[in-house]
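Many introductory courses stop at the sequence. We go one step further.
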Amino acid sequence: MSYSKTFICLACSRKPEGRCVAGKEFVNGAFGNWIRPVTPGDHSAITNEQRKYPDGYSAVVLDYVAAEFTGQETGGFQAENHLILQPSKWKLAGKEKQTKQFLTKLADSPASLWTNTCSNSFNGVNDRVSVSKLTQQIDSLYLIPVTKLIVHVEYIDEKRKVRGEFSYNGTQYKLKVTDPKFEQHYDKAGKHDISIDYLTISLGEPFEGYAYKLIAAVF
């Protein structure tokens, strides 16, 4: 039996085969826990077709999305995952104007972004967690306040790589950016210092023994 949930979209980031869509549940005028719609499979990505509304437009950040689900995903460590009904039947339930005051109501306050004891990846800082530490389901999404972001743009084998460097609770992070709308503004290689308000941080699926911390949305 399927069930309905409405959520405010706080990430619609790139991932293999589609997008990682996530947000906070909206019930009776109040915001609740994180929810990440997923499909069965290795990558669990939401395809562009699956996130379309009946009018042909697609779900984006700060949409209120009404979706149908068939159950919570029990495998893996991401506690927020719910399997979507297929074929998908997403509906736009409203839009939110982006304001710092609105996001303040939704912000999380973790002491740290998971563990910072693993080795860094190439060009990353405190950007991954060993799979050996992910033995149970945990919160894998946070909306955190960040006022300054250093955007690093480089080209490797003609492919653009974008990372964001920031400080949170006294710890420095340099993470891969997967927010496509944000990335499109940065084509020139080099460093760019910008002022922001919030970041959605996601702990992605395991890859070669690690789960990587990703900047899934920039506000």
